[in-house]
Amino acid sequence: MARNQPGVRVAELQQTSFGPFSKGVISTANALLDMKAALKDAQNLRVVGANQVLLRNGSTAVMTFQDDQGTPANVTSIRGISAFKDRALVIAHSTVTNKVYAYVVAPDFTGWYAANDTLTTGTTAAPTVVLWTSITSPPDVTIAEGLGIAFVAHSEAANASGLNWPSYRIGFNIDVASTWTAQTLQSNLDGAGSVNIYFAGVISFEQSLWGWGFGAGNTAATGYSPSRARFSNPIFGFNDASNVQRDFFNSEDDLDLGNRTGSVRERIIAAAVAGPTLFLFGHETVSRIQGYGRDSWQKTIADTTYGIVGPKALVSTGDTVYYWTNRGPARLSGYVWYGQEGRPEPMWDAINAASLAAANGGNPAGIVAGFARDLDQVQWFYQSDSTEGLVRFAAYDIRRDIWLGPDSAVGVTVACAGTVEPVFSEASPPGPPSGAPTLNAASSIGASQANINYTVADATADTEVWTQLHTGGTWALLATIPANPGPTNAMTAVGLASSTAYDARVRHVKNGQFSSFATNTSPYFTTTSLTAMAPTDVAVSSFGPPGSRTDPTGLLTWTVNESGSKTEVWLKGPGDSSFHLLATSPVGATSYTIGPVSTTGTYNFEVRATKPGYTASGFDGPVSATLFTYTGAI
Amino acid sequence: MPMFIGESAGARVIQVGLGLADVTASGTAPVLVDITTHDIYPAGPGASVVFAGLVVTLRHTGGYHVGVTPIVDGVSLTEQTFTAAPPVAGSDGVAVVRAAFRQRGIRVAARVRQTAADADLELVDVAEQAYVIRQAP
Question: Which residues have C-beta within 8 Å of that of residue A520, sequence separation ≥ 6?
């Protein structure tokens, strides 16, 4: 049948696109909803750029952790991962040794630090310090940092039956010189003296260390306070010169999660900081804490319904905290100020129904959340039944506000997650000079200058040359000799005072860091005195035979070149074998009148300049003239 | 900023977002895309059509193994598999595969999954083809 035959309608092939899939995954069967651009189910996708939907990347083991036995064996569970200082901190448990270990590792997981802080490159790490011992079950831990100290708390540190696992602080050079140590966290919570304290969790917020569910002393009655969070002073409690923590959690410095003081129902389970807000989470309650310091903390209860499922089911990124409630995932903004309404935003309406199985017998308390900045994803690890372990994976793309997944099971059960990025490379900051220069003997010492000689120890470093008067002087930087072009091993000091003793010292400078000084204060050198400039143009003239016995016989003239100098007139007369000083003319004089002579003959003259503090100049001359003696009648 | 996870029953810290496979307890397991679309009603919720095929547009860097399953009125039909070698040099790697079938129905969805790991894979689009016999009133 011809398709253009009048009266006959022919079905034509039509094509409709399901994508592009810019809405991620939205699980529904309702045909009346606009699900254009959404997937009903998707495993193992990621979104980049302008909604490019790609296969997600996999995972790679980067480091293995071992216990402290003589022949080390692998630990049995990784319990915490956190950025710490410019490194990372990992907490692990062994059911073989029944210990919990802390590992300070390079931020890219390429090496680990021993107790003496030496870095060993490798992917199998030994413990840096030991925390709890005789502990048979792997703990859930929280890690906080302040002033270079890591604080670690066990989520079951205390309960109504008693005190179990004290909190620890981990630091380098705080208790034992040049050593990483782990000490139990102590404070005077009840005024009875410093004792171990038992926080169920710790977090840093506004320069204060916060702990919750705290305990102290030896009895549950005084120790357990499940709904309360306590905050330190703004310096994390370091209140004496030796960095020993004392009394930094004062008894009145605390807040309750909700309204039922001391309530197990309002037990604080977790905390997170997002933007300017500290969020405290309980089973049914979420509170927002804002402020800065003891007299300004303000609490706003944000939720009394959904709460949170477990201590690891939350992660903050930017100004938002993402967490898993007893209903499903939700988020809260930290930029909601005290007194304003800021309810949790449910995110479970769009997530695939399979993920909600996390809350139905699948160990919801164990749910782990993490944030992968390079993927723009909050990632959740959960289990859908009571036996499979935390192997399920779902991700929320925070840039595009879309769900991805839930994915197929990942290859391992997950206990914790953390984001760590090197803040600078191991080679930075650049190093100091490799050594100090040596100071050699001075040379070419003159009245106003001298050569200061040294030998560089680091050819890439600049060299500072300092001098001072040996007597009563203060050090002054004379010059900084650059490494390029160079190296130079000497400099000439000029403008020195004559006949003066000087000290000298040299050091290298490189990348803003200095070597030690090489110093000579013996003194290093003493300048010579100055030489007066000689007169010039000396000339002598004879007056001829004198008319009387007292008449002068000649005139000597010269030009003065040394300001302020006197002029010595030296004479070698007939019969003299050498010159001798005849007279010294006053300052400024340029002539000398020669008096009567006793013998007619040839007289030789020469002149030189003299000046206090100066060496006499050389002679100008000699010049000679025939001078006459008086021969007339007496 | 890489994210790391800690093994619950092991001694390893694992970086997320690297490679084409997930770490397992004793080795690796490939990461494979598996998506299912929502239904499309070509002629509306009350009119049947004759579905003719699914067209899947992919972009790959190292070949692909994919299976395409039409789902008509909620019933999965036979999966059709497609494979390809890595794109030739200079190619942008975009490939279009068509899973042809004939099935009368009202709604259709598509399941597209990798059956083996090759290299990175972008899911560009999925489309359905149908002969519309009559539109729903």
Answer: A439, A503, A504, A505
Is pLDDT larger for residue A393 or for residue A441? A441
Mean pLDDT for A211-217 is: 79
- Domain CATH for A458: 2.60.40.10
Q: Is residue A264 part of a domain?
A: no
Helices (H), A373-475: none
Taking the model in full, what pTM does it have?
A: 0.73
pLDDT tens-place string over residues A85-125: 999 999 999 999 999 999 999 999 999 999 999 999 999 99
Where are the domains positioned within chain B? Answer: 1-31, 32-132
Can you tell me the mean pLDDT for A278-297? 91
User: Would you give the DSSP letter of residue A56?
Assistant: P
Whether a cis peptide bond, with omega within 30° of 0, leads into A234 is no
pLDDT score for A509 = 95
- Give residue A10's pLDDT: 61
* Helical (H) or strand (E) element with A220: helix A220-223
Does a structural domain hold residue A617? Answer: yes
What per-residue confidence (pLDDT) applies to A191?
63
Q: State residue A107 phi and psi, 5-degree precision.
A: -65, -15
Instruction: Tell me: do A491 and A535 sit in the same domain.
Output: no
- A389 is a domain residue: no
Q: Verify that A543 and A500 share a domain, yes or no.
A: no
Q: Which of the residue ranges A35-39, A456-460, B48-52, B129-133 would you say has the lowest mean pLDDT?
A: A35-39
At residue B47, the pLDDT reads: 86
Co-location of A551 and A588 in the same domain: yes
A188, with CB counted inside 10 A (0-12, 13-18, 19+), is middle
CATH node for B32-132: 2.60.120.260
Residue A215 to residue A165: CA distance in whole angstroms: 10
- With a CB cutoff of 8 Å and minimum separation 6, the contacts of A70 are none
Q: Which residues contact A205 (CB under 8 A, 6 or more apart)?
A: A231, A273, A278, A289
In a domain, A549, yes or no: yes
Kindly list the residues from chain B whose CB atom is less than 8 angstroms away from the CB atom of residue A410. 22
Instruction: Give the end of a domain, one of A528, A543, A562.
Output: A528
pLDDT at A243: 44
Residue type, A548: S
Same domain, residue pair A445 and A511: yes
Q: What pLDDT sits at residue A237? A: 54
Contact (Cβ atoms closer than 8 angstroms) between residue A232 and residue A248: yes
Question: Taking CB atoms and an 8 Å limit, are B15 and A81 in contact across chains?
Answer: no
Are A495 and A572 members of one domain?
no
Provide the domain count of chain A: 2
Give residue A438's pLDDT.
94
Query: In a mutagenesis test of the B interface, which of A3, A23, A78 is the best target, namely the one with the most B β-carbons within 10 Å?
Result: A78
A208-227 residues touching B, CB cutoff 8 A: none
Mean local confidence (pLDDT), A579-583:
94
Do residues A448 and A524 both lie within one domain? yes
Q: Closest to A77 (Cβ–Cβ): which among B8, B40, B132?
A: B8
Interchain contact, B5 vs A38, CB within 8 Å: no
CA distance B9 to chain A (A): 5
When pLDDT is cut at 50, 70 and 90, the band that residue A471 belongs to is very high
**pLDDT for A254:** 78
Question: Is the pLDDT assigned to residue A194 strictly greater than 90?
Answer: no
In this structure, what token pair is assigned to residue A439? Answer: 């100071």
First to last CA, chain A: 172
Interatomic CA distance for residues A287 and A338, integer angstroms:
11
Q: Do A42 and B35 touch (CB under 8 A)?
A: yes
Calculate the alpha carbon distances from B87 to A55, A234, B66 in Å: 17, 60, 15
Residue of A nearest to B32 (CA): A44
Range of the structural domain that residue A488 is part of: 438-528
Does residue A519 sit in the same domain as residue A538?
Answer: no
Last residue of a domain, one of A465, A493, A528: A528
pLDDT confidence tier of residue B132, bands split at 50, 70 and 90? confident
